[in-house]
Amino acid sequence: MRLVAVLLGLVLVGCAAPSSATPSAARSAAATDALVDIGAGIQGPAGLAATVVAAGLPNVAALAVDDEGRIWAGTAAFDDAGTDTISVVATAGSVPRTVVRGLHTVLGLLWIDDALYVASKERVTVYRGFDGAAFASVATIVTFPAGVGEVNGLALGPDGRLYVGISAPCNACGTTLAESGSVVSFRVDGTDQRVVASGIRAPIGLAFVPGTTRLVVSMNQRDDLGDATPGDILGVVVEGQDWGFPACTGPGAGACSTVPTPLAMLDTHAAASGVAIVTGQFGASVGTAAVVAEWAKGGVLRASRDAATTVSAEPFLSGFTSPVAVTVDGSRALLVGDWGAGTIIRIATARRNLSIESFHSADT
C-alpha cells in the first residue's frame, strides 16, 4: 500500500495552495514573515536554535526517546516493500545504527520503561531487552484485521493505556471494520482493545496534554473534493465521539452539525502528521501549544489558546522538506523528523518553566 494514499492524505491530488476560504490562508503570511533563520536551514521564532542531530535516515516517520536519552527513528517508505527499519541515534551527531529491519510502514514509536512499542502495518509490536546492539525479544501484542488502514501514531494515556490512530483504507468510502478511521486504545499487554472515537478519516499524530486527559489528534480530511476540499484539523478526542467520516466533509458542511468542534483548522492538502505538546519551554511568544507537522507544506504549525479561549494555528517552523514525526525529548527540546531530507532536527531554547494552564483550561 502506498504510504501517501492514506497516511499523507492523497496530497498529490490537487496540491494547490489553500483557497481564501481556508482559515489558514489569511493567518499565514504575517506569521511566516515573522520567522527568522535559527540554524540548520530552518526558520522559527527569534530566540530558538535548530541543529541537526542525525542524518542518513530517509523516510523517517516516527521518533521516540528512551530513558537514556537515545533517539529512536522508524521509517515508512513511499511504497511499502517491507524494507522499513528502526534505528537508534546514541548521541547527537552520531551515525544512526539500524537495529531492526524488514518492517512495514513504521508510523508509531513509544518507549515505556524498557520496552519499545512499534505501530506498523496492521499491528502493534513490543521489543524488549535492548543490549546496545539488538533486542532480546519481540512480540506482536495487537493484530488488526487485514485491510484496516494505516496504523499511525502511538500515545500513552494518563490511564496507563496505549492509544493509536488508524486511518480509513480509502479517501471517501465507508468501512465495515470498527477499527478503521478511528482512535483505538488497549492495555500495554494488548488486551481490552476498544474503539475510543470513530468517523475520523485519518488520525495520524496523537499527544496528551501533560497533566490532563486531553488527547490532541491530527486528522487528515477527505482530499477528493476539488475547491471544496476541507483543511486538515486538530481535534481533542473524547471517548464516544463520532467525527462524521465520510459524510462530514469539514466544519460547516451540512452533515457536520453533530460532530465535535475542531481544536484548530490546518492547511488544505497538508497531510498533517505528528503532534507534540510544548509547555512553555520556548518562551512566552510560543507559550503552551500543540505543534503539528505538515508533510506537504514543509513546516510545523502551532495551535494555542488565547485569553478568550479561541484557537489559532500559526506557522511555527519552516524550511523542512517533508516533516512527519515530532516529539519532545528529556530536556524538553523538540525533535522533528524530516521524511524527505532524512534528518532529525532539534529545536531548543534556554527559556523554561512557563505555565500550561491556558492550553488545557477547557479540559473535558
Structural account:
This protein has two helices and 26 strands. The protein has 364 residues and is mainly beta. A hairpin with a 2-residue loop joins strand 8 and strand 9 (115-120).
Shape: globular
Low-confidence stretches: 1-27, 350-364
* Estimated structural class: mainly beta
Please give the largest β-sheet.
4 strands, antiparallel
Number of strands: 26
Radius of gyration: 19 Å
Compressed to H and E, one letter per element, the order equals HHEEEEEEEEEEEEEEEEEEEEEEEEEE
What share of residues is helical? Answer: under 10%
Multimeric status of the protein = single chain
Q: How far is the first residue's CA from the last residue's CA?
A: 36 Å
% residues in beta strands: 35-45%
Q: What does the secondary structure layout of this molecule look like, with pairings?
A:
Layout: H1 3-6, H2 23-33, E1 36-39, E2 42-44, E3 49-54, E4 60-65, E5 71-75, E6 84-89, E7 97-103, E8 108-112, E9 115-120, E10 123-128, E11 137-143, E12 151-156, E13 162-166, E14 182-186, E15 194-197, E16 202-208, E17 215-220, E18 231-237, E19 264-268, E20 272-279, E21 288-294, E22 299-305, E23 311-318, E24 323-328, E25 334-338, E26 343-348
Antiparallel strand pairs: 1-2, 3-26, 4-5, 5-6, 6-7, 8-9, 9-10, 10-11, 12-13, 13-14, 14-15, 16-17, 17-18, 18-19, 20-21, 21-22, 22-23, 24-25, 25-26
